[in-house]
Design brief:
Structural class: mainly alpha
Radius of gyration: 42 Å
Strand order of the largest sheet: 5-9-10
Number of strands: 10
Helix content: 40-55%
Number of helices: 12
């Protein structure tokens, strides 16, 4: 169910049951006058959204959400989430953290409904594979041929001048790819969970090793730069003592170098924390397995299934160099990322693509599917050509038509005479051959 629908549902329920909204409840609790008494039971979607977005639902306590520039200031200002102080496991969670994060992700993107009132659940999950922008969904009221009325395209292509290519893909094709991927991976997990965990662990270890190698290199560079800055600051102190550097200039340079050192130390802490988090990803595989166990048979895509299984989808530009349209689509699953199923050793390799034969097969299929229409158009075209040919001929007089008729009859009589003479000649030759044969003796 879309986030907007959930907010509207709660809005109607709370209003109908006459539940006090937060502002009226606080005023009544503290003994103050209720502001706008006529609206004390009126709930708005924004209020409900602020409540649902609170992380306390999954058992944490958050402090320092707001701050004030001065104690005289009565209007608090919001801090960014990165500056919040979060205490884990301080209370009994109402929902688990994974479900809460999935709900937040589904509420971030606005999914606008079409004329039938149903929003597209893939919106917010599809991204351009080249520029990283979100893919926009375009749906037309008129249903076009080959279901091309519902499609996705890169949002950078709609700007002027275009900042990216179109990356066009039909929604039906994307839904088919997502459904096939979810069903195939789920079937593999149900068949052999141990092998699935092993493959996820191997892929994660390889990825972690590559990322850890880059981050260790950055960590060494930052540490080396910090030691260099220490030496530079020491030399500045020596120059100040000897009188080679003024006090004002010394303070400016030292402040810049110390600020750079603080930034590097913060980055070093972040890198060390990231390196410590590179561990066994068996837990991630178990989380994905728990999702698979909730669904026995997936026949269609819904918003709930997409949000639980799919993290994001990267769509690349189509390639037509081989004679047919081929497009790369990378599907990232929740917790495990891209998962490549092991190939079957007994599988038969497909034959190489022949563009000429493929075009012939397409034409044969098109002909048999539209045989009646094609034949009707051909007959209509031939009749038109015949009529045009007759219309282009000059008009003949009665004497010319009579002469043509006489010539035709004379030609017919000549052909008949020739045919009769030839037939009589063959009969004479047959009779002569019959008389020249030797007599046969009866035994």
């Amino acid at each position: 169910m879309p986030c907007v629908t959930v907010l509207m549902l709660f809005e109607y329920i709370l209003t109908d049951e006459k539940v006090l909204r937060p502002e009226a409840y606080i005023a009544l609790r503290d003994g103050h006058e209720i502001p706008k008494p006529s609206e004390q039971y009126t709930w708005y979607g924004r209020t409900i959204q602020n409540i649902i977005f609170r992380p306390e639902y999954h058992g944490v306590t958050v402090n320092f959400r707001t701050y004030k520039d001065s104690y005289k200031d009565k209007r608090p200002k919001q801090r960014p989430p990165e500056e919040w102080l979060v205490f884990e496991n301080t209370q009994e969670p109402i929902i688990d953290k994974v479900t809460w994060e999935t709900a937040q992700k589904s509420c971030v993107v606005k999914r606008r409904p079409n004329n039938s009132g149903t929003p597209n659940p893939i919106t917010g999950l599809a991204y351009c594979g080249d520029c990283g922008r979100r893919m926009y969904n375009a749906r037309k009221a008129k249903v076009l041929k080959y279901d091309s009325h519902d499609s996705y395209a890169c949002s950078g292509h709609s700007t002027y001048p275009p900042k990216c290519t179109m990356h066009y893909i039909k929604t039906s094709s994307l839904q088919s790819l997502l459904l096939d991927t979810i069903r195939s991976v789920s079937h593999f997990v149900q068949e052999d969970e141990a092998e699935f965990v092993r493959l996820v662990r191997e892929a994660s270890e390889l990825k972690n090793d590559q990322m850890a190698k880059v981050q260790r290199k950055q960590l060494a560079q930052h540490q080396k730069r910090i030691s260099e800055l220490d030496n530079i600051i020491k030399k500045l102190y020596e120059e100040k003592i000897t009188g080679g550097l003024t006090a004002k200039r010394f303070e400016i340079l030292v402040a810049d170098y110390e600020q750079e050192q603080e930034d590097l130390e913060y980055q070093i802490d972040q890198l060390q924390e990231a390196l410590e988090q590179f561990s066994d990803d068996t837990g991630k595989a178990d989380k994905f397995i728990s999702i698979v166990r909730k669904y026995t048979d997936i026949t269609e895509l819904t918003g709930t299934i997409l949000n639980e299984f799919i993290d994001k989808v990267h769509i690349f530009e189509a390639d037509k160099s081989s004679g047919r349209r081929e497009q790369r689509v990378d599907i990232h699953l929740n917790f495990i990322g891209q998962f490549v199923l092991p190939t079957d050793p007994n599988a038969v390799e497909p034959e190489p693509f022949d563009p000429v034969e493929n075009r012939r097969a397409q034409w044969r299929e098109h002909y048999h599917r539209n045989k009646e229409t094609i034949n009707a158009k051909q007959n209509e075209r031939r009749a038109k050509q015949k009529a045009d040919k007759l219309a282009a001929q000059p008009v003949k007089t009665a004497e010319e038509l009579a002469q043509e008729e006489a010539d035709r009859k004379e030609k017919k009589r000549a052909y008949q005479r020739k045919y009769q003479r030839e037939s009589q000649r063959k009969k004479r030759e047959a009779a002569k051959a019959q008389t020249n044969q030797p007599p046969t003796l009866a035994v």
